[in-house]
């Protein structure tokens, strides 16, 4: 019997700061209403930067211009019966455009909020994951890697590795 290959869920997130406040979303999750950065899963054929742009637009109705990578984070979440999921998250920072009022927010997103770092620290129990605050703290500490730190190499079907 062939064993299934394990692979993590690859996600992206955006830390967006303006005038001392951070853009976050309030969203429905299986654990109730939670706060998160604009974030989501990498889709087939996308670069990480493109995924961060797309997810931010879908969740905030605002165009995101990534400027740097804040960090790469891995989280393992244990679930019932020994099952679990591992998430590999690439968090970018950058600037945001004006809201597109006619654009609907992604399913599950209730609203966007601008919160200070202290407000985010005060509501940690409502964060979707501990990475919400960790990403902000890393951003505030000045952690930045140039976008070319993340390289995308596309290969044709005959050149794939197994």
From TrEMBL:
<feature type="domain" description="Nudix hydrolase">
    <location>
        <begin position="7"/>
        <end position="138"/>
    </location>
</feature>
<comment type="similarity">
    <text>Belongs to the Nudix hydrolase family. NudJ subfamily.</text>
</comment>
<keyword id="KW-0460">Magnesium</keyword>
<dbReference type="GO" id="GO:0004787">
    <property type="term" value="F:thiamine diphosphate phosphatase activity"/>
</dbReference>
<dbReference type="InterPro" id="IPR033713">
    <property type="entry name" value="NudJ"/>
</dbReference>
<comment type="subunit">
    <text>Monomer.</text>
</comment>
<dbReference type="InterPro" id="IPR000086">
    <property type="entry name" value="NUDIX_hydrolase_dom"/>
</dbReference>
<dbReference type="GO" id="GO:0017110">
    <property type="term" value="F:nucleoside diphosphate phosphatase activity"/>
</dbReference>
<dbReference type="Pfam" id="PF00293">
    <property type="entry name" value="NUDIX"/>
</dbReference>
<dbReference type="InterPro" id="IPR015797">
    <property type="entry name" value="NUDIX_hydrolase-like_dom_sf"/>
</dbReference>
<keyword id="KW-0378">Hydrolase</keyword>
<protein>
    <recommendedName>
        <fullName>Phosphatase NudJ</fullName>
        <ecNumber>3.6.1.-</ecNumber>
    </recommendedName>
</protein>
<dbReference type="GO" id="GO:0017111">
    <property type="term" value="F:ribonucleoside triphosphate phosphatase activity"/>
</dbReference>
